[in-house]
């Protein structure tokens, strides 16, 4: 290599003679009275990092990223949580077992909330049968636990109605459990079973023949769940959860690939400087157009690959809308505007692009003399990558932090309790994640911390590179540091 990183690291690329002023220069090394000159800011910056660590520790202690995607069951467990009671690994989909409670939660001015409707975690959304009546029963506990364990319960499609006593069957026919009829078809929408307000005639007929209570069939049962799934807070949680689930893509496309391409770009500046301005502008516009077309595909304006909130296989005649679809369309429109501005701007600055070629020629000379410039950016890049891994992990836990507490509902939520072997009407409310005001402050501080740390690493890198380039550019033909000042 022709030399290290100039004045910041140590020497000029070219040798220089010793100056009479030994305090200013010695063997090409810039000497000066270097020391920390902003003690107050240094203390503030150290305090910031301590606060970031404490803030993140709170998130790691209180948060659970599973809460961002999956719902809560009637026992307060997070669906899919292997540490739940019982073990709910692979049981990731939330299903509301009592359709009348879902209907009541959607009635205007009703005091009953969907969060208090009895729900359970399943592997897939149940589907009604036309030949018989399917059931979804509570987790096996108490006397039932001695006959059926969790594995048998899952393999029997969550149905042990035939094993119930007369009292339990009578309670089930009043929609008080422990078993509930599957009357409405449902589909997996963002890990919750969205009811389709078209009851199965066969199942409904069997239910009525058995003496079951009346079941509301209004469209409200569909809208109540749809409104909950598409609430602003639920959508925000899903966006944050998507970041956590796409960590592999982020590492490859947001980390390894950009680093590789940036090194290629620097090498191309070194050897193909005359064409690099045009190549850069052309590649940038191609990328903008490609991203815009990708959003057109996902918005459904081109082809048949539009995003859908429904997860897994489903009836093609079932369509469920979601906020994310509207967001994709809005981003597609925004990218169209950006694409137009990019192309028009590229045409308008053709003369300046020619000027940029001259600047890049100087940059190519610098890279040729100070070749460490190609390697040095890896250092701040690595530090920033380590910070981002820590930051994203802490962010997921902060966004999911809070306490799971049972709601204080005053509605009729009576349900059969298998442990006490009777119907209970107290302690039957649902569970919700309760957030305190300081969690919002912690999240905003965490976001600000990302911005500050990112700018610090960028400024650190820019300072070193600027000092190296300046020491070469202004003193490349001089023998004295005095002459470059």
Q: What does this molecule look like?
A:
- Helix 15 (378-399) runs antiparallel to helix 16 (437-475).
- The chain contains 16 helices and twelve strands.
- The strands form six sheets. Strands 1-2 form a two-stranded antiparallel ribbon.
- It has helices spanning 6-9, 39-62, 99-106, 142-145, 150-155, 166-173, 201-209, 220-229, 232-245, 247-271, 273-299, 323-348, 350-369, 372-375, 378-399, 437-475, and strands spanning 25-26, 29-30, 93-96, 119-122, 135-137, 179-181, 186-189, 192-195, 403-406, 415-417, 422-424, 431-434.
- Residues 1-29 and 478-485 have low confidence and may be disordered.
- Strand 1 and strand 2 form a beta hairpin.
- The protein is mainly alpha-helical.
- This is Choline transporter-like protein.
- It is found in: Cell membrane; Membrane.
Q: Can you lay out the helices and strands and say which pair or pack?
A:
Layout: H1 6-9, E1 25-26, E2 29-30, H2 39-62, E3 93-96, H3 99-106, E4 119-122, E5 135-137, H4 142-145, H5 150-155, H6 166-173, E6 179-181, E7 186-189, E8 192-195, H7 201-209, H8 220-229, H9 232-245, H10 247-271, H11 273-299, H12 323-348, H13 350-369, H14 372-375, H15 378-399, E9 403-406, E10 415-417, E11 422-424, E12 431-434, H16 437-475
Antiparallel strand pairs: 1-2, 3-4, 5-6, 7-8, 9-12, 10-11
Helix pairs in contact: 2-15, 2-16, 3-8, 9-15, 10-13, 11-12, 11-13, 15-16
């Amino acid at each position: 290599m022709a030399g290290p990183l100039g004045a910041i690291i140590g020497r000029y690329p070219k040798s220089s003679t010793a100056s009479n002023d030994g305090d200013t220069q010695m063997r090409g090394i810039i000497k000066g009275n270097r020391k920390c000159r902003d003690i107050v800011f240094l203390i503030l910056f150290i305090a910031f990092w301590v606060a970031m660590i404490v803030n993140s520790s709170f998130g790691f202690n209180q948060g659970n990223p599973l809460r961002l995607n999956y719902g809560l069951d009637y026992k307060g467990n997070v669906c899919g949580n292997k540490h739940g009671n019982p073990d709910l690994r692979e049981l990731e989909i939330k299903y509301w077992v009592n359709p009348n409670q879902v209907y009541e939660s959607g009635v205007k001015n009703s005091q009953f909330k969907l969060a208090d409707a009895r729900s359970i975690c399943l592997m897939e959304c149940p589907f009604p049968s036309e030949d018989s009546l399917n059931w979804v029963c509570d987790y096996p506990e108490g006397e039932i636990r001695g006959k059926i364990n969790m594995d048998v319960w899952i393999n029997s499609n969550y149905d042990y109605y035939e094993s119930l006593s007369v009292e339990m069957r009578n309670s089930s026919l009043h929609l008080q459990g422990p078993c509930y009829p599957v009357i409405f078809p449902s589909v997996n929408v963002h890990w919750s079973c969205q009811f389709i307000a078209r009851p199965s005639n066969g199942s409904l007929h069997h239910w009525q023949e058995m003496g079951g209570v009346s079941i509301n069939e209004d469209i409200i049962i569909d809208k109540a769940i749809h409104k909950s799934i598409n609430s602003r807070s639920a959508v925000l949680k899903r966006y944050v959860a998507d970041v956590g689930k796409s960590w592999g893509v982020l590492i490859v496309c947001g980390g390894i690939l950009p680093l590789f391409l940036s090194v290629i770009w620097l090498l191309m500046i070194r050897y193909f400087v005359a064409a690099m301005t045009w190549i850069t502008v052309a590649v940038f516009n191609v990328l903008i157009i490609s991203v815009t077309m990708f959003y057109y595909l996902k918005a459904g304006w081109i082809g048949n690959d539009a995003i859908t909130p429904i997860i897994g296989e489903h009836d093609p005649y079932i369509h469920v809308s979601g906020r994310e679809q509207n967001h994709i369309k809005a981003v597609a429109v925004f990218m169209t505007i950006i694409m137009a501005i990019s192309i028009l701007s590229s045409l308008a600055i053709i003369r300046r692009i020619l000027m940029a070629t001259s600047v890049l020629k100087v940059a190519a000379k610098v890279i040729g003399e100070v070749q460490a410039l190609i390697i040095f950016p890896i250092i701040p890049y690595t530090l920033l990558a380590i910070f981002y891994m820590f930051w994203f992990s802490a962010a997921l836990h902060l966004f999911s932090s809070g306490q799971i507490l049972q709601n204080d509902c005053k509605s009729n939520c009576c349900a059969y309790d298998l442990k006490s072997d009777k119907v209970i009407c107290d302690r039957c409310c649902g569970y919700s994640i309760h957030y305190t005001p300081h969690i919002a402050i912690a999240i905003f501080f965490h976001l600000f911390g990302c911005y500050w740390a990112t700018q610090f690493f960028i400024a650190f890198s820019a300072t070193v590179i600027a000092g190296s380039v300046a020491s070469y550019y202004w003193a490349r033909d001089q023998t004295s540091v005095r002459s470059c000042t």
